[in-house]
């Protein structure tokens, strides 16, 4: 048991290192896209350690407690994440819903801490973040419902194994409409450009982050990197057939994250009600159509 | 000849350990400088080329930030009036330490072309400590970038200590602020 | 050995005594109420778990009692909520107009509850139901508004009439008022009609979609200590009736092939889904904290209906667990709001802010309650929602699935609003003098906090008991071991492990936090305002129209149901005034006309 827990902490740490490096590499790629040099690939590490080294301000106990709860919740979630179909900390307990709901503890902690700072912009940012969540989660979960029904399991490794079995396609191919919905939902989850309404630095002064500086902001950056690791890995396991070894996982992970980042950089930003209307129009419709086709008619490529 | 006996390593004092950590921290701080831009004058036009593909500030690890809490550098460009100085001081005091101030153009140095106006503050460093001046009216983008590199160099040589001076000579700064502005914290101008 | 009959008589007697005592001194009467409810709870808990209660009847002629695991599950939850709330009475009783009758009716309604769940006769069931409804109807107007009671009574009456009609239908077909024999003997079309009638009663009591209007009005305006009872306990009577209809009658309507579910049950699941969506959307919009929680009760009632209509052991277990989890969560949240309302005198969120700095324990109670309500681990609500999700996915119900997911994500939005607006944010000047709730009010708060966590971390014992109920109604029990719950689709949940891992994560974060440089403490007003000087807390406190961009999207549709019921009420009023015009008139001619018509009818009646 202790060994498993240590392994889990190791996976969380691995996720942090992986995602932070990849985020740095992606900043460089975006720089090249815009005909710039871009920062060093380890710039994100420097940023985080710099923040941890600064002397920050605090607005009371809930401000600090929320940050601890946020980072703790996310580390806890990452500990359940399988890297490959056989390499995970807690075998058989990698249930899909754990990820969706345990991640919410982290989000709640952050929202609490942000509102506890007493800054109205922070509350507006939290409001927008929650509204965006309401928008993208429902179509995404309908697609997941289809997948769980088809794979007859809600464990991530089992779903990945089902796709690796001979005769089965990856779900992004088998359920093309659902795949599109999932990519859109992933962009919402990661807060990428058309849906980054809740950060909006020029409009609401970076939303929930407005009052953070120093170690609290550094911890939230760590939390953000691990969250991205969880969400992208979820996509890899659910739609891209998981990974049978760690290299395949790394390749798939890097491809998905870079792809989403590239799309994001040629987009503007939606208003918050546009985000809701967008997700409840086409993605939800596509998700439902896909679910009906796949579950009731059994037409799966 | 070395003694074969076990000699305990000389214990570092608390102050020395702190200094070592501070040096490690300095490496991160000089390679990741986030700015809060306080632009009231024409020098602000030099910042877009500094950020975008011409000079690409991001390769030095620098970038703009939204709020004073997150920022390391307070970039002051353009002239300061009595009204804006109040806000500048308020913003400076909200920043997390260590914090640095970069003054752009001649207005913060000597008042620039408005030096004889009744409402313009001529010398910024009477009110808050300034680490780097970039002179010129207006300075071109190379000198702006050069100023940032100077700041990084100063952090490396541990001479960027404006924020410490603000603590040490706080009474002096406060008095200057009071003489020019009356009260620094003024009443709510919009909602009363 | 406790006897049910004696318990009911004891409660009725104590009700009278408490009336006299409260007359004499309000505090003595309230403490007496606490001891009476505690005695009843302890005797039920002590003998009920093993079905050791004495059911013999000596003093009440014509009454019969029997005990079942199902009835006990409901009765212990409800009595527990009553007990917890009774601790609040000494601090609230002086605010009521009719103090003595408050305690009297409170105990009498508890007697009704015990009777309703332990009876085995339909007529007695109806009698006890009415006892509960009538007593609570007089309790509600002691709060803010009298109209609340009218609305509550109107919808309850509709439910009662449907229930009574259903009971008579059963009697006419099977010839018995015995509950088990009557439900088992139903068949054919009668069973469908009884199914529908019972469901109307259940929907009315549970506040589910078409019959939900009373819920926010009654919960929002009820006395502060009585709202937890209404939401945590009394709406669960509806769930009890729903079990009769959906599981015990379960008529053979046409089965939908792909879903493997009868049409009737699917319709109920869809209506449950509508309840979830409607409750969520209205809760997001609401500004009154208690009404917001009332709408959340409506949405949770929808979850219970969905779970019961899926017709298998797993879903049934999820529904039953949800009843417990929601009772605890909703009681905790309402009690926290009551504690706040006691010191501020309002439940409007836009008038409050920053209560956390003065009432940190109440804040924690509310936080834990809403974590459970939103279905986030490690609290009880997560276990039940997880089971219900598994059951819904296993059946492949897409549209119900959309509702269930929407409600679950939407609950993050509405539960966060009181947290942000009422407890967090700027500390408003007018509430800087308030104090934390007194120790007697904190006792139940701590107990409920503990139970919310316990139900989320160690559900095995409770699920074992639920398995007994599942066997009793004839489904396949779910497999539960000490550490893991197995759902459909090969899924296994280990709540203890989740909590452990969460704890380790928080520990790591805490170590990181404590190792780094200490922060400088600043005032709440010292926030980033784009360098403007703002000196008024109200201007920096974001509470009004919290979800404005989202609300704008459905503000036109949001009052459809209210308009419908207003129109209905208008029609009934018109009908009434038409009758009044015909019958109640001073005009002699109209009276003569009626007399003549009646005489003619009487004369012709013979011939016809």
Automatic annotation (TrEMBL), chain A:
Membrane topology value: Multi-pass membrane protein
Keyword terms: Membrane, Transmembrane, Transmembrane helix
Chief location bin: membrane
Pfam families for this protein: NADHdh
Compartment(s): Membrane
Keyword Transmembrane helix included in the entry's annotation: yes
GO cellular component, one term: plasma membrane
PANTHER family reported in the protein's UniProt record: FORMATE HYDROGENLYASE SUBUNIT 4, FORMATE HYDROGENLYASE SUBUNIT 4-RELATED
The protein, known as: NADH dehydrogenase
Organism name: Mariniplasma anaerobium
Lineage, opening ranks: Bacteria, Bacillati, Mycoplasmatota, Mollicutes, Acholeplasmatales
From TrEMBL, chain B:
GO MF annotation list: 4 iron, 4 sulfur cluster binding; metal ion binding; NADH dehydrogenase (ubiquinone) activity; quinone binding
Presence of keyword Iron-sulfur: yes
Coiled-coil spans in chain: none
Any GO BP annotation: electron transport coupled proton transport
Key words, A-Z: 4Fe-4S, Iron, Iron-sulfur, Metal-binding, NAD, Quinone
Domain NADH:ubiquinone oxidoreductase-like 20kDa subunit: 39-150
InterPro entries with a match to the protein in the record: NADH_UbQ_OxRdtase-like_20kDa (IPR006137), NADH_UQ_OxRdtase_20Kd_su (IPR006138)
Pfam entry (one): Oxidored_q6
One annotated Gene Ontology cellular component of this protein: respiratory chain complex I
NAD is among the record's keywords: yes
Domain of life per record: Bacteria
Family stated for the protein in its record: Belongs to the complex I 20 kDa subunit family.
NCBIfam families cross-referenced by the UniProt entry: nuoB_fam, PRK06411.1
PANTHER family, per database record: NADH DEHYDROGENASE (PTHR11995), NADH DEHYDROGENASE [UBIQUINONE] IRON-SULFUR PROTEIN 7, MITOCHONDRIAL (PTHR11995:SF14)
Protein name: NADH dehydrogenase subunit B
TrEMBL record, chain C:
Keywords: Cell membrane, Membrane, Oxidoreductase, Transmembrane, Transmembrane helix
Protein name per its UniProtKB record: Oxidoreductase
Gene Ontology CC annotation, any one: plasma membrane
GO biological process: one example: ATP synthesis coupled electron transport
NADH:quinone oxidoreductase/Mrp antiporter transmembrane domain location: 120-408
Intracellular or extracellular location(s): Cell membrane; Membrane
Source organism: Mariniplasma anaerobium
Keyword Cell membrane in annotation: yes
InterPro entries: ComplexI-like_HydComp, NADH_UbQ_OxRdtase, ND/Mrp_TM
Membrane-topology annotation of the record: Multi-pass membrane protein
Molecular-function GO terms, alphabetical: NADH dehydrogenase (ubiquinone) activity; oxidoreductase activity
Primary location group: membrane
Keyword Acetylation attributed: no
